[in-house]
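Problem 3 from the worked examples.
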Amino acid sequence: MHKGGVMHITILGSGYEGITISVGLAVFGHTVTTINVNPTRARYLQRGVLDMRDEELSSHMKSVLREGQLRFTSELEKCLSETEIVVIPEVPNSDSDTMPDKRALLRAAECLTGIMGSFSIVIVSAKVPSGSCHILQDWLNETIYSETVNVVAFPAFLGKKRSLHGFLHPERIILGYEGAQPRRILDEMFANPLANETPICHVSWETAEMMGAELPILSPAVPEYPEATHKLSTSKESTSWRVEIARGSDFLSTNEGNTRRSSKKIQNVS
């Protein structure tokens, strides 16, 4: 599927966080496809037209588009049949002042059901309440009829400032997951030489979610939290990152029948 550490990654959404993560991963050498349900906007983005004021992001986006490392499309099903990792950078109705409810993450992920995908990792970089990734994992196990898809919490922007520079030069990377299966793929995803001196903290879903939510009980100094530090990676090949808030209006829909099936399961989440 991939060669020499280059992975095929699909980003679900092209708000500011989605585009920033897409461009950052493409700069790191991965092959990235970003989904926008609006075909017109997807075409504009594919031409390098960024409808946001961010010169650094715009410049790097045009560069990785020219190199073929990044593309924008509205064709979700084809992307999921070829990708190894899916990233959810945004959830509906989230903003800088309000924490979305747990159902919001399931609504953002419902497009993954009913499609024969090749992905084995779903990364949640959006700001979500504690416990959301656990619920998403259980829901994917039920709706995809497989336990081979692993959910990972990745707060990509740990701080007030969200930017491409912060993504490319993080102080640390926080990865929350359960079990040993995701580790090999995550090590490859974050093995870029630009970040190989950055510490990676392997923690639980809940710890990563709380750090992404910037709860007051959490300090920027990861070693103060036993749950985070007892799994702190000591590998020389480790890496690092930042994630913070998820906004954007371009969320993914799915076919009507699949939406009905998904919504029944979403309603059962408390």
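Problem 4, a separate protein:
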Amino acid sequence: MLQTDDGKVVRTSLISLSEIPDGGAQAVDATIDGEPQSLVLTRVGDQVAAFLNVCPHAGRRLDWAPGRFLFEQGELICAAHGARFRPASGECVGGPCRGASLKSVAVAVHDGVVFLAG
């Protein structure tokens, strides 16, 4: 286990930062609260955000094929119904779930590795 500067304990290693395209996303599987979950990790520079890979509109996965995500004008697009999300916050800014947000998952980057933060 690692500890961040703000005292949070960092636990499960998810992926190397270099495996997430800058300005893009990558899917990973993780156990959250004892349940297997698909996560979408978005990256801008060295900043990574993580969300459950579930659209708040219809409960479907965001990717159009496993681990393959659509982006347009810097926004993450749900492949099912075209909802548009800000990759850093998960806020839906267009489409059928405008105003809702993806469910965020706490992560931290340490020495080029993304960890699930607890």
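Solution to problem 4. The chain has one domain: 2-117. The chain has a mean pLDDT of 91.
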